[in-house]
Amino acid sequence: MVPAFADADAVSRPLYVVGVDGLAAFLSAQPESVRAWLTASGFAAALGDLRLIPGGDGVAAAVIGYGTPATRARGRFGLAKATALPAGAWHLVGDLTPAQRDEAALGWLLAQYRFDRYRKSPAAEATLVLPEGCDGPRLLAMAAGEYLTRDLINTPAQDMGPDELEAAFTALATRFGARSKVVKGAALLEQNFPMIHAVGRASPREPRLLEMHWGNVGPSLTLVGKGVCFDTGGLNIKTSGMTLMKKDMGGAATVMGLAQMIMQLGLPLRLRVIVAVVENVIAGNALKPKDILTSRKGLTVEVNDTDAEGRLVLGDALALATETPTDVLISMATLTGAARTALGPDLAPYYTDDSTMAQALEQGATATFDPVWRLPFHTPYEPIIEPGIADLDNAPGWGFAGSVTAALFLRRFADHPRYMHFDIYGHTPADAPARPKGGVGQGARAILAGLPTMLGL
């Protein structure tokens, strides 16, 4: 399902947006019958509270509460509940700022998402006329990229293994005229991707590295994603938390969604996307604790936990990424539980040593309603990831700052002054406005909005 706005020429009904501070004025301007109806129904303009206003032939209009500034701050996409309106076209009426109109329009599009591959659910039939001043193509591109990300994450591993993720990647490249390349199986060893091969070799579905190039002019952006289609933990098998591990390819899904946004909008840049794709399962040839791997970069890595596999596959992918000059390098991964413990599921932590990039990202996060939070590449912790027997330890048993030490591990392979890493969750644990329970992209819209500053577009 592709999101869309109602035709601007369509006959549409008004959807009044009323905050608590404007409720009295709104009610006084209504006919007595409407005022009495809303008062009797207990409408108090609470955020997201929706009421239909009857008319001669059914529903003539609707009103939705916009709460107070405090409740709006706590309830992102609070107007998205308006997608429950009766079928037909609707237009917003209310004293909204440009940012509030953008939030309402984007929230409406995101709230229409349905994952119906295995069980059909009714589509939202109410459509919104693009609010005045909103950039329709940009909003639609952001929503379409998010839909792709959600679909990929929500699909179970039986139908979204390495083969299927490769097919989705190459289909995306073909759709936008990008060049794609796949290296898989034994060819990973032949072409020097030893850590990707080591993590994925136990699965009958071969590990692989996917690469895409798009655009011929402008500054260069390289996106790297973790594509662990399912993670049992390997021989360090997960004793809990395996249920959600179909989402361990959330980094790959998110960079693919972001790539779609960039290509759909035709941004003037050169885009490279690299995704390391594996299943981390158990077999006689599985990677073992205390094995030492020699990475593509030449760094040796002691494997102290086979369940810390994401940083291994990303290490080889990041090493490849830096072999060709790029202006900005960004990696995205569902990497550590420590990040969730620190910030919860809704807030995406990121790392960078470039303050200009951080400022651009955070301004973009605010503009696109895509929250992020900066964590530090804390250099004094570097000795923690150095085991002595090898250059690096993939899982130091320190017990502190797990997301930070994982980020420091990746920085050893990125070795780029304008590198940014996201440790995302990729999952909404309960239904929220415009974010149904299940797979979700994090950080992609913030990056998209920050690219003009990051790249000088």
From TrEMBL:
The protein's GO terms of the molecular function aspect are: aminopeptidase activity
Residue ranges of every copy of the Cytosol aminopeptidase domain listed in the record: 148-447
> What keywords are annotated for this sequence in UniProt?
Aminopeptidase, Hydrolase, Manganese, Protease
Q: Which residues form the M17 aminopeptidase N-terminal domain?
A: 14-131
Highest taxon of the source?
A: Bacteria
**Pfam families in UniProt:** Peptidase_M17, Peptidase_M17_N_1
Family per UniProt?
A: Belongs to the peptidase M17 family.
What is the protein's given name?
A: Leucyl aminopeptidase family protein
State the organism named in the record: Cypionkella sinensis
